[in-house]
Amino acid sequence: MAAMQPEQWDTFLRETKIGKLAMLQADGSPTVVPIWYEWDGSVARMFTTRGTPKVKRLQADPRAALTVETGVGEPEAWVTIEGEARVVEADAMPLVRRLAKRYYEPAKAEATLKQWEPGAANWVMIELTPSRVRSLAPGE
Fold first, then answer.
1. Most trustworthy range by pLDDT among 88-92, 127-131, 136-140
2. All domains in the chain, ordered by first residue
3. Which burial class, exposed, middle or buried, applies to 19 when counting CB atoms under 10 A from its CB (0-12, 13-18, 19+)?
4. DSSP letters spanning 85-140
5. How far apart are the C-alpha atoms of 44 and 56, rounded to whole Å?
6. What is the predicted pLDDT for the residue at 140?
7. How far is CA 23 from CA 36, 66, 78, 98, in A?
8. Can you tell me the distance from the alpha carbon of 40 to that of 14, in angstroms, rounded to the nearest whole number?
9. What average pLDDT does the segment 77-97 reach?
């Protein structure tokens, strides 16, 4: 099984796919949640609302992993970013807007953003900086 080269996994992570964010619960057991993300070449960014279980877990223990994979029926390929996640209290709405427009068709993105924008102060970013990247190249 061959790993992707860095250029391959960079391209793969820039595609629109649902990620799965793994983190640790207070008792040390793992949990995984599906999540939208954006990869900029060095950091994966996600968003959530302040005070969610995700935020509480990551503030207590920042170790996390984000896995992105191909869908059923496509050649198997995946990338997992392992590292430390940081909850960023800065304005998350630019990221929220970009991802809504990326993951939803235009009319749904517009309607959703109208609902989400009044609560803009409640959105926070999660930034996952890789300490290790593991992957499987397509067709391997």
1. 127-131
2. 6-136 (2.30.110.10)
3. buried
4. EEEE-S--HHHHHHHHHHHS-HHHHHHHHHHHGGGGGGEEEEEEEEEEEEEE-TT-
5. 19
6. 56
7. 15, 9, 18, 24
8. 8
9. 96
